[in-house]
Write a structure and sequence with these properties.
Structural class: alpha+beta
Strand order of the largest sheet: 3-2-1-4
Radius of gyration: 16 Å
Number of domains: 1
Helix content: 40-55%
Protein name: Polymerase nucleotidyl transferase domain-containing protein
Shape: globular
Largest sheet: 4 strands, mixed
Distance between the termini: 34 Å
Organism: Nostocoides veronense
Number of strands: 4
Number of helices: 6
Order of helices and strands: HEEHHHEHHE
């Protein structure tokens, strides 16, 4: 099953690259990266340069495909077992760079979401207990 899921992820990554040109990296998470015998899918946050996203959004066809990938519609639209989202990467220097605050909020959201273990106790849920894997695809430039 993992081989099929990985094939689905590679196919989706190729499709996204055809739409936006370059994909610097992806964050992978979920049961695919655990010892679960039969994971259901791969959870993926693609990190794409904001300029490449805006260029793709200027073309109606590319914009439709990007929207499906960015909003987790891949399973129904393309029959690929990937939960996918897109983070628009805003290159900025330094830890408190010049990127818009919304960028830092979104990046922090995904980091926080994927390191926490879901628990009904808010105090327990807030503790980091798992992680994600960053895969460099085309690299940051």
């Amino acid at each position: 099953m993992r081989q099929k899921l990985w094939s689905d992820w590679l196919q989706l990554t190729s499709l996204l690259k055809a739409v936006v040109g370059r994909v610097p990296a992806a964050w992978l998470s979920g049961s695919f990266l655990t010892d679960k015998p039969v994971p259901g899918d791969i959870d993926c946050l693609y990190i794409v340069d904001v300029d490449d996203v805006q260029a793709a959004m200027a073309d109606a066809g590319r914009a439709r495909v990007l929207d499906v990938i960015a909003r987790n519609g891949v399973k129904s639209a393309f029959n690929l077992n990937v939960d996918s989202f897109v983070l628009e990467w805003c290159p900025a220097s330094g830890a408190a760079g010049s990127a818009p605050p919304a960028y830092y909020q979104q990046r922090g959201y995904w980091d926080d979401l994927w390191v926490r273990y879901r628990d009904p106790d808010p105090r327990t849920e807030s503790l980091p207990r798992r992680g994600f894997l960053e895969v460099t695809i085309d690299g940051y430039r």
